[in-house]
Design goal:
single chain; alpha/beta; Nitrilase/N-carbamoyl-D-aminoacid amidohydrolase; 2 domains; seven-stranded mixed sheet; 9 helices; globular
Length: 328
Amino acid sequence: MPAKSVLHALAISLIITSTSPGADVPQLDRAKLPGRKVKVAAICIGFDGKHDEKLKLALDHLHTAGKNGVDIACLPEEFSGTQAEPIPGPTTEAVAQLAKQYNMYAVCPIREQAGDNQYNTAVLIDRKGKVAGYYRKVFVFWGEGVNCSTEGVKVFDTDFGRIGILTCFDLNFPELWLRCDELNADIVLWPSAYGGGSPLNAYAILHHFYIVPVGAGNIIDMTGKTMERVEKPRTQQFIATLDLDRTFVHHDFHTDKVKRMLEEHNDQIEVERNFRPDDLAPWWLFRSIAPGVLARDILKEHGIEPLRDYQHRSRKQINEAREKGERI
């Protein structure tokens, strides 16, 4: 039997032997919660290894994530070894079965065979078990033996928000993280062979998105702090609930508007943190405190521009003035 057929048969066998009967899965009821909540899982079972053993371990972890009601679960970089396969292929099909069973998204990083080329690729699988997209590693590490992506950074729209995916050595190249910001990513998932550390915290606060590292499981809040409220249902799995509605606002031009807004909506929205007294950054961080209410809707109602929008608009308009030789 050809190698690909053996892998495919094994993957199906692993699904059959590890799949439990369908059960009620506790998922977030967003309509009854303040803000825009999403539950994420980092499955930190490590890079490489024997394909059969690692795939079986990954599927078992996905059962755990699914039973905990996660919206998206991410596996590590090339978690099941470096034998290349196409998309879809036996590994993505095995993961897709559980994504469908538990009505969750999954990020399945593999070594991809695409014609004559091979890539270090993270495959996004949707809640129906379909391939929703893929990201090929831009900055391949020395000696990986794969092709470098020519497609660049991508973001993907899900039913809970917009996600970006970057991989391992991509950590070292700030332009990729800036591009995720420019594309308005709410979360960046980072499947990796190692932990990453403090550069990830810096990217999170600088670009105002959450980062889910899948090396050490140190899930990072958009404030740049490693999250403390993390569930650990088993060794090597980390689950956190993120609120994608939380919004930074710059103090510039907004003081009076914010005062009026808080007077009118003091039972719906609050200043979670005013950064100026702490670290001199002239920012507020707002969050909803009422079920079914979005802070961003209230901010928009009062003409208050989120910090990310303010920065993007300022970059564009100031650069246009520069090109025309105009004064600001």
